[in-house]
Specification:
Blueprint: H1 5-10, E1 18-21, E2 25-29, E3 39-43, H2 55-76, E4 81-84, E5 100-104, H3 123-137
Antiparallel strand pairs: 1-2, 2-3, 3-5, 4-5
Length: 138
């Protein structure tokens, strides 16, 4: 297990406020929440980024994330939330163990703020990207 704060939590070296746990996944309250009910969801398999995570661990996360989102919404009374997952330092990842944030968005300013500097997709570039991604999947 990696020597990150999440590895230490998984090994029982650091306590956490567990919300959910199964064979493959652990979810717990963030100790520095952006809003009330901010939950972290981690695979028990150590992997720094999603591309390094096994299909089985990713599937386990995918099975539990919708249930956790519904539970956080019900518990907090929020009707909106952000589901955030960063990969690599340039993408603002601070703990190098795959993790998802479920961040309730109550009315008002609490929660996650996002700026989205959207561009335009060039048709020729799109065609080239589709071929390149499809080839990488093969």
């Amino acid at each position: 297990m990696a020597d990150t704060i999440f590895g230490k939590i998984l090994r029982g070296e650091i306590p956490c406020h567990r919300v959910y746990e199964d064979t493959h996944v652990l979810a717990f309250l963030d100790i520095m929440p952006l809003s009330r009910g901010h939950v972290l969801v981690i695979p028990k398999e150590p992997a720094e980024t999603m591309d390094r995570l096994s299909d089985d661990a990713a599937a386990a996360l995918g099975r539990v994330l919708p249930r956790l989102c519904r539970a956080v919404m019900k518990a907090t009374g929020c009707t909106a939330y952000n589901l955030l997952q960063n990969n690599g330092p340039a993408a603002h990842q601070a703990v190098f163990h795959v993790h998802f944030h479920i961040i309730p968005k109550p009315s008002g300013e609490a929660g996650l703020g996002i700026k989205w500097p959207a561009g335009k997709l060039d048709a020729a570039d799109a065609a080239a990207l589709v071929k390149s991604i499809a080839a990488a999947l093969a």
